[in-house]
Amino acid sequence: MNAEFTALAEKIEQLIENCNKLRANNLGLRQKIANMRSENNNLNQKVSIAISKLEKLMDETSSDK
Q1: pLDDT tens string 6-64
Q2: What angle do CA 25, 32, 27 make, to 5 degrees?
Q3: Which of 28, 42, 59, 65 has the smallest CB count inside 10 Å?
Q4: What is d(CA 2, CA 13) in angstroms, rounded to the nearest whole number?
Q5: Rg of the chain taking only CA atoms, in angstroms
Q6: How far is CA 48 from CA 34, 35, 36, 39, in A?
């Protein structure tokens, strides 16, 4: 009976350790997502600026004709 409790206690300790590792991994992934969203927003802004510049250039070119 004592061996069963010891085995159960070890399994519980492993479960707790795995949960802690998963929490840490989850936190790291959430941080990566936040960083990628921020980078995505920056890139979207750059694309919008580039589109505006191209549209302006096209308007200027078509009005010169």
Answers
A1: 999 999 999 999 999 999 999 999 999 999 999 999 999 999 999 999 999 999 888 77
A2: 30
A3: 65
A4: 16
A5: 28
A6: 21, 20, 18, 14
Phi, psi of 47 (to 5 degrees): -65, -40
**DSSP 3-state of 1:** coil
User: Rounded CA gap, 14 and 10, in Å?
Assistant: 6
Give the sign of the dihedral formed by CA 49, CA 52, CA 54, CA 56: negative
User: Which residue has 């069963």 as its token pair?
Assistant: 4
Dihedral of alpha carbons 14, 17, 22, 23, sign = positive
